[in-house]
Amino acid sequence: MREFELDLDTPEKWGEGLVSIPAGEPLDLDVRLESVHEGILVTGTADTRLTGVCGRCLQDIAEPVEVEFQELFTYPGNEAADFEVQDDYVDLETLIRDAIVLSLPFQPVCQPDCLGLDPETGERLTESTSESERTPVDPRWAALQQYPSDPDGEAPRRATPESEDTVTEKS
Ligand SMILES: [Zn+2]
């Protein structure tokens, strides 16, 4: 059995979705090779980093990716196999690329509760949580926003006569 670590760079861009592994991204491999009757059993982990955009709010994201892989590379001459030992070598690239690409999220998000984009303003909703809980303003009422509406503010509310009575009862 042989174990070794490899620090490589991805040879090309891996993945075609919203997130992918760019070409030249550091790729750390821990690989174990075991000789078995039918061939060589390859087991290991690969660590790299994905970059792309959130599927909801389109913010750039970059996060680590770790995948485990295991595959039997058979000696040539046996029945058709996906992976074969060739000239005493095992070519790990396809194996590792497939493992990583399959692990990439199909609908990546910048955070699990990403709220996406405001359908009216196109702005991200996640950063302004308090605002996002407010119901969108109907355009017909938008003009009223010019008037003070903060209930804790000092804005005079002479327009509503009951408000003075309420204050009196409380005191
Ligand atoms: Zn997002």
From TrEMBL:
Residue segments, region Disordered: 118-171
One Pfam family named in its UniProt record: YceD
Coiled coil stretches, renumbered: none
Residue ranges crossing the lipid bilayer per the database entry: none
Source species, domain of life: Bacteria
Biased composition regions of type Basic and acidic residues, renumbered to the chain: 121-137, 154-171
InterPro entries tied to this protein: YceD (IPR003772)
PANTHER family reported in the protein's UniProt record: LARGE RIBOSOMAL RNA SUBUNIT ACCUMULATION PROTEIN YCED HOMOLOG 1, CHLOROPLASTIC (PTHR34374)
Protein name: DUF177 domain-containing protein
Organism in which the protein naturally occurs: Microbacterium hatanonis
